[in-house]
Amino acid sequence: MNMTTTMVAQTPITPSDLLDLEDEGLFELVGGKLVEKSMSSLASRTAGVITIRLGIHNEQSRFGEIYPEQSFQCFPEDSDLIRRPDIAFITSDRLAGVEEQGHVTVAPDLAIEVVSPNDKIYELDEKLEDYWSAGVKIVWVVNPKFRWIRVHLPDRSVVELHEADTLTGGAVLPGFSALVRELLP
Q: Which stretches of the chain score pLDDT less than 70?
């Protein structure tokens, strides 16, 4: 996950302006301001490992599509809000609403945030609230430094899993399971 609060511009930016900046780096749009995403090396490697494991599972199950670092504009309370989970998953039955260009306007079923050293807890909490408002079913918060994964559910319950525990995909990713240590470099 990456939620560095480096502000890049002072004037309000629109979601379409953000699309023009794709070659400049990874950004979210929060309150009309660009928020640059910068991941640590460890967080980036962790996101890669998880993406590969999900990809292998998805090749066999064909249950949906994986979106690494995709921008999402799917928040009913703020139509200009753009979030970019480190990894997202949308189930097959909802893919028809996903356009080939631009921000994805369909909320992911699963959002995954990988913690970097510069992430702030209140920014993560804000992002979780945004995900719940959009209807995201599960959020995995992965902390590679302390080697745990927290599974957040819309009822606000949280399950913390450690290296010897098994992470499953629940109803969103039936059949997916992996030991937490297998998902952490």
A: 1-11, 23
